[in-house]
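ingest -> validate -> predict -> emit
validate: passed (alphabet ok, no gaps, 277 aa)
predict: started
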Amino acid sequence: YFAILTDAHGTVIDTTGAIDRRDPRADVIARVGVDLSERSVGTSAIGAALGELQPVWLHRGEHFFQDTSVYSCAGAPLFGPNGRCVGMLDLTGVEVAERPELKHLVARSARAIEAALALAVPHALQLDLAWADSLPGDEQGALLCLDAEGAVVSSNGAAREMLPQLHGLAHGPVHASDLFALPWQHLFDQAGRAEPAQVPLWSGLRLAVRARRHRADAPGPASPSRPPLKALETELIHQAVREAGGNVDAAARTLGLSRATVYRRLAATRGGGRPQG
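emit:
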């Protein structure tokens, strides 16, 4: 399997992973600039994810055209800091075994990309959110960012599920005072405290909130697509090695990679220790 990143129209903007360039079926779709929208190639995980705005899995014959029935694909949409769809992340294999569990992996990776996009927007305060009986700050958790005046400048999908008012961010401004039933300045007072604050919502529910200050005039962490895609490729390598019982030769053949590449990637994440050769 290899990863494809597209824009909101289904045009490829990045690729990574075990792409066999000698196989035209892989090479023809894994090129920047190729249109893989439903209008162009028929039903696929790319078109379905962008159309349904949900993670999907399509295996072989579930694709519309005979030419695309060699592919197995997992896809998940990507939403920008204001909640609009900005693209999708796809995992594709050519004549491979059915792996529907990859839908979960690609959805998890999409959420990581969305968090990076949200944090890349210049902001003064980052709020990590969780329900009152949980701890905020998990890498897959809810987050939103405020400017120095308390206006919401970005959020991720988990935050929009917890705070439906954030869906309005795609159409106009949303203020912290619209979300939380307390003076918004108190959120800034919580910054740097070890324990999360219990913050009331207008609905009567409470959230656990951990606040972190940022310079409002400086951009957040850079969010290029390459690190999330590289992390996804590494996870696929680890999964193949596990399924091969630690046999790197077998995992490398399954992935279409060299043994050296597999060993190098494992060493980078494990800090040494060679699995079975």
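The chain has two domains: 2-117+223-270, 122-213.
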